[in-house]
Amino acid sequence: MGRLQFAIAAALALAVKTASAAFTIGSPTGLAAGTTGGANGTVVYPKTNKELIAYLNASEPLVVVLTKTFDFRGTEGKTTEIGCRPQSARECIAANNGFKSQDVILKNGMNNTGGCENGTETTVTYDNAYRWRLNVTSHKTIRGIGRRGVIMGKGITLRGDNIIGTVNGTKTMNNIWIDHVKVSRVGRQMLVTNKAGVATMTVSNSDFDGETDYSATCNGRHYWTILIYGKKTGVSLLNNYVHSTSGRSPKLDGNAWMLAEGNYFDNVENPLYKTGKGFLYAATGADECTKYLGRSCEENTLVSSGNFTSRDGTAALEAIKPYSAITKYSPGSDEATSSTQQSTDDSVHQSEKEASSSGESVHQSDQLSLTMPMVKQYTPGSVKTSHLEQQWTQASDLEKVWAQTTNNFGVGELD
């Protein structure tokens, strides 16, 4: 059984190839090509939290259509107990700079809980609903309808076929497509693949919004954003918008072979945090992709940002070469296969607060391949983006994409 954790406090739309005659919403490009989800299954419309839980756990293929906000906050009580106030939180309080830091829920004591560095005891109160995620079994499509498809107060765990009682994950998952999703206001990772990994996943046309009142870095920016690791993990990140984060956007923990092309970095202090021994080809004007992949790669663009250079780039291209989803990828194709969304004039609120930021980090472990093809210009029309906040933008044509998709991003926030 594999697990994919997905922390959600906004709109969710796990789209698939052809959900039903009424919900034909395109098909994924990238490594998740061919994913069908709940295609040919019954279309259901949950009205209560209990119905939503039951549908997501059902054994048969389903298209689960979200037409409202499912708010789990306060539904499972609260817990008050001794927690940890790490040194970073104490320093943030002392700084009194208008931002709030985070206390830590203890898991294995003060000395063995991640995030509790040099911690002191404090009392913490938390909502129990956050600790137990929604389980989604195989062959499911979760389709949000515009702004009405919102899940608040719980994350989601995607689980593979033939589940047998283990919680750590022993079987690598396949065919996961996350499309047109907004994730915001979470405590830790927005998206994580877990140890078993996911062999074929595409995350496309999605908004990972890190603006928060409670940040580990005391600057209003989310830190743990996307963690990709596990055995035999392959992910395509296509046409996404990741902003207001201070790091790990994403973190690649693995014997990672990464192709990064067409990315737009604006005011990113560290586009690449260099630790470990992963392999990265960062496309520049001197394109080597044609030689290894049979196609050209789009150059990355950096504006008022640090260096983003290849690390053993030819080794990365050699490792990626067998993946036809990468070699045959055409910038803009992920947009074409997405569902058409109603255009909107909504704006995205952008913070103007100064903060240091860091982008991807590549680390060493088992096996991981990642492709991030996008383009080099960000001109999103009515979406007014601060140059201080737009840390990591991926897009094939963001002006058109945002006009089409902003209306599909939910507005749920956690207080």
Automatic annotation (TrEMBL):
Amino acid composition bias (Basic and acidic residues), ranges on this chain: 346-355
Signal peptide: 1-21
Domain Pectate lyase positions: 99-271
SMART domains, alphabetized: Amb_all
Keyword Metal-binding: no
Biased composition (Polar residues): 356-367
Matching InterPro entries: Pec_lyase, PEL
Molecular-function annotations in GO: pectate lyase activity
Keywords: Disulfide bond, Glycoprotein, Signal
Region feature Disordered, mapped onto this chain: 328-367
Protein name stated in the entry: Pectate lyase domain-containing protein
Chain intervals with Low complexity compositional bias: 333-345
